[in-house]
Amino acid sequence: MATIAIEAMETMIGRTFTSDWITVDQPMIDAFAEATGDRQFIHVDPVAAAATPFGGTIAHGFLTLSLMPMLVEQADVPHVSGMRAAINYGCDALRFLAPVRSGSRVRGHFTLAAFAPKQPGQYRQELDFSVEIEGQDRPALAARWITLILT
């Protein structure tokens, strides 16, 4: 993970960082269903899901969203030197745009949209985040991810 000075973050605005591809397979979907209690058939029953327009099971939208921390680490978005903590502040304009079918490969794209002081020792970082599905034109999701950086 690259570490850069706070002053250099402004020069990174507009830069996009891309993660590696990961496979969203049925065991991952099943584990998420167990962890969240969301066992809707479209996610966990391949036979019933095959009769839907998706032709098989799909990942939960929130599973795809929950991949953000792993994908951002793989994308090597720089950390601020002297950072004590990065606190998830939430997402703006979160949209689930296309289903992720079981067995699909996805990767994250993170564009540094904003980085500004909030108060002494605190900075607000905004990343435009999307999840690309291999072989598809439409992303699985798009959002603006906001993080509070403490130095």
Can you walk me through this structure?
- By secondary structure, the protein is an alpha+beta fold.
- Helix content is 27%, strand content 40%.
- It has six helices and eight strands.
- The protein has helices at residues 6-12, 26-36, 41-44, 46-50, 61-66, 68-75, and strands at residues 3-4, 16-18, 22-24, 79-80, 85-96, 104-119, 122-133, 141-150.
- Strands 2, 3, 5, 6, 7 and 8 form a six-stranded antiparallel beta sheet that branches.
- β7 and β8 form a beta hairpin.
- The longest helix has 11 residues, at 26-36.
- The chain starts with a strand and ends with a strand.
- The mean pLDDT is 96.
What labels describe this entry?
about 150 residues; alpha+beta; 6-stranded antiparallel β-sheet; two-stranded parallel sheet; 6 helices; elongated
User: Mean pLDDT score, rounded?
Assistant: 96
Main beta sheet strand tally, sense and closure: 6 strands, antiparallel
What structural category characterises the helix and strand content?
Answer: alpha+beta
* Element pattern in H and E: EHEEHHHHHEEEEE
Low-confidence stretches: none
Question: How far is the first residue's CA from the last residue's CA?
Answer: 17 Å
